[in-house]
Amino acid sequence: MHRPPEPWYTSHPPHPPQQPVPGNPYAPEGYTPPPGPPPRRGRFGKGPVPAVLAVLLLLVAGGGVLYAVDGDRWSGPTAPAAERTSSPSRTPSPSRTPAVRTPEPKRIPTSDELNAGRKPGDATAWIVDDRTDLPRRSVKLHDLWTVGDTVVQALYKKVTAHRLSDGAEVWSVNLPAPVCETPVAPTPDGKVVVVYQNREAWTGARCNQLQMIDLRTGRAGWHKQLTETGSMDDTIIVNSALSGDVLAVGQSMKAAAYRVADGTRLYDIPMENPGKCYPDDVAGGSRLLVKADCAIGVDRTKSYSQLRALDPRTGKVLWRFRTRPGWEIGKVLSVDPVVFTTLHATRRTDDWRVVALGPGGKLRTTIDPRAKGFKYCADTGDSGEGIQNCDGTLVGPNTVYLGGTDRVGAYDLGTGKLVWGVKSSDSTLHPLRAEAGSAALVYEAASAGRPGGIIRLGPGGADTEKRVLNHPESARSTEYGMLAGELAYAKGRIVITPSGVSGNDVMHEARMLSFGPGAP
């Protein structure tokens, strides 16, 4: 099918400046679309449909036996009332009630089955059907890490690496209790420190056990427990980030740094304006950033956020940035360049901005993407995850890319202006990788009616669209079920997982799905 016949624009016009086309929300000023018919675009699907849960009653004809499906268990047949009446003068007969039947888990297709319907030029797929025994609740899948030829992720009490080329399990590390926190990216030499609970049960558990893992070898290194003094450093909720060989951990209203190599505590992250500003979260990568909430009180219009850049090795403060009163920092989209979101203290995700800083933490530009219809973190809201987890966002050297349930676009970090944008009436679009000239690779998620794929877009929007990867139709329903929860892109291959999986065997879900070029 063709994309809707509406014009899309570039901010670098080949013609003299023109007036923007009325009614087109994506038109940067000063460009008229090239003449001729609209370009061909890929197909877009509808958004996710909520699951419907039902209780089903089946009456077996002629037998008077009633079966009930209640949630996830089958009850056995119930005999008529006359047969259920017992008599003390009779010898009890063996029960006619068969054993309770448990429904079979939903079947997950194999990689061969997903590839069986490939058309010429379609991507090849592999799938991971993880049979880890999980508790009967929704279990979170944590950050995806790609190291070498592996993709690694923590689920419940295990960290597992799968080979990027075919999905085969390479190694796994088992932990005594569930993982509760992971950093968004490993160290440059492929190490992470995961945080897991001090006990199996969630009730009363603390998120206080640190475990270093070398992702290149699958070997577990040092382990230690976070210290709690009872003075604003509890570990009910913990945030972590890696910068070089330094692990920063925020626990309640305090934070500290540790050496990744051996777990040595290096320094306490300073609490500035004691009693007024408290470390709230940490962001890592090529820089170490610490967010603090300040002037916390009943009147939220007076509160503000402070962002500090620290030398990871020493803890020295390199610069500070402070929001204006009534606004707080939401998510850090990039540490180099420094780009983050801000939220109004009371209007929250209904009133947000993208802020870019320059050298020394000086304000570079502020962008209001709401005018083009972009929703906060691709319409997932303030998810409550770590400060570096924001769906549908990507930052390049001079561009921030925003995706969402029906659009994707790029803003120049220097001018704050829209460089290009593409809107779709029925597709979720996720920027994957920044490319030269403000272009980007974009994941076009699967819908109920068509498979997903990867496209390349740049200045000129739909006029520049290039199909990079077509996912096979035979994988559509499985891909759609993932709902693009967690994404990774490496070596021309996309890896997709859900945000969480159910521990209910009847609702068993695939753990991981991947598409890449080449013959199976």
TrEMBL record:
<dbReference type="InterPro" id="IPR002372">
    <property type="entry name" value="PQQ_rpt_dom"/>
</dbReference>
<feature type="transmembrane region" description="Helical">
    <location>
        <begin position="49"/>
        <end position="69"/>
    </location>
</feature>
<dbReference type="InterPro" id="IPR015943">
    <property type="entry name" value="WD40/YVTN_repeat-like_dom_sf"/>
</dbReference>
<keyword id="KW-0472">Membrane</keyword>
<keyword id="KW-0812">Transmembrane</keyword>
<feature type="region of interest" description="Disordered">
    <location>
        <begin position="73"/>
        <end position="123"/>
    </location>
</feature>
<feature type="compositionally biased region" description="Pro residues">
    <location>
        <begin position="13"/>
        <end position="39"/>
    </location>
</feature>
<feature type="region of interest" description="Disordered">
    <location>
        <begin position="1"/>
        <end position="46"/>
    </location>
</feature>
<protein>
    <submittedName>
        <fullName>PQQ-like beta-propeller repeat protein</fullName>
    </submittedName>
</protein>
<feature type="compositionally biased region" description="Low complexity">
    <location>
        <begin position="84"/>
        <end position="102"/>
    </location>
</feature>
<feature type="domain" description="Pyrrolo-quinoline quinone repeat">
    <location>
        <begin position="147"/>
        <end position="270"/>
    </location>
</feature>
<keyword id="KW-1133">Transmembrane helix</keyword>
<feature type="domain" description="Pyrrolo-quinoline quinone repeat">
    <location>
        <begin position="306"/>
        <end position="490"/>
    </location>
</feature>
<dbReference type="InterPro" id="IPR011047">
    <property type="entry name" value="Quinoprotein_ADH-like_sf"/>
</dbReference>
<dbReference type="InterPro" id="IPR018391">
    <property type="entry name" value="PQQ_b-propeller_rpt"/>
</dbReference>
<feature type="compositionally biased region" description="Basic and acidic residues">
    <location>
        <begin position="103"/>
        <end position="121"/>
    </location>
</feature>
<dbReference type="Pfam" id="PF13360">
    <property type="entry name" value="PQQ_2"/>
</dbReference>
